Amino acid sequence: MNIDEQTIGQKTVSTIFTLIGEDGAREGLLDTPKRVVNMWKEIYRGYDLTQKPKITVFENDMCYNQMIHDTGYFYSQCEHHMLPFFGTFHFAYIPNKKIIGLSKISRLVDFYSAKLQVQERLVKEVIDELEKELDPLGIGITMTGRHMCKEMRGAKKNGGEMTTSDLRGVLLTDPSVKAEFFNTK
């Protein structure tokens, strides 16, 4: 972000203070516009393709053909209200000719989460990328998230979760493989 973008961003935050009835000249808020703009650069890094993680894959020279699982957390921002949504993901694949370093999965989830999102698109973007890199026999992800746009405003219903999934290959077409995926969370 260049100096002009930084200045525009800080003025935008100051304008928001005015819109919500806050005094931007109050001592506790003097440096807040700068902090907010720096936070935006961090949490919306998914728009900066130079920060996209390099996906490292390896030849599956041992011919491993069983399901491989990974789980983790994600944090994103709802594109409709710019409020957080966050939760857990469960990823699995059955390798064909390639395997992946597991840290790359979490890094890819983090990258695609770091922009204004909807959970439905997020699962698709992650699986599209991993399927392209791995060409697996089967691949899938589920994400279960709490959405602050539902809990803090609108319905104001705390504790509810939304689950989305994207299954492909044998994880979608073979009932026993699909059952293994959903029973191994």
Please outline what is shown here.
With 185 residues, this protein is of the alpha+beta class. It has helices at residues 3-20, 32-43, 102-113, 119-134, 148-151, 170-173, 175-183; strands at 57-59, 68-78, 84-94, 98-100, 116-117, 138-147, 162-169.
Describe the structure using short key phrases.
alpha+beta, GTP Cyclohydrolase I, Chain A, domain 1, two-stranded antiparallel ribbon, five-stranded mixed β-sheet, 185 residues, GTP Cyclohydrolase I, domain 2, 7 strands, elongated
Please explain how this structure is put together:
The protein has 185 residues and is an alpha+beta fold. The protein has two domains: 3-43, GTP Cyclohydrolase I, Chain A, domain 1; 58-183, GTP Cyclohydrolase I, domain 2 (2-Layer Sandwich), CATH 3.30.1130.10. The chain contains seven helices and seven strands. The protein has helices at 3-20, 32-43, 102-113, 119-134, 148-151, 170-173, 175-183, and strands at 57-59, 68-78, 84-94, 98-100, 116-117, 138-147, 162-169. Strands 5-2-3-6-7 form a five-stranded mixed β-sheet. The chain has a two-stranded antiparallel ribbon with strand order 1-4. Strand 2 and strand 3 (84-94) form a beta hairpin. Helix 1 (3-20) crosses helix 2 (32-43) and helix 3 (102-113) packs antiparallel against helix 4. The longest helix has 18 residues, at 3-20. It is elongated.
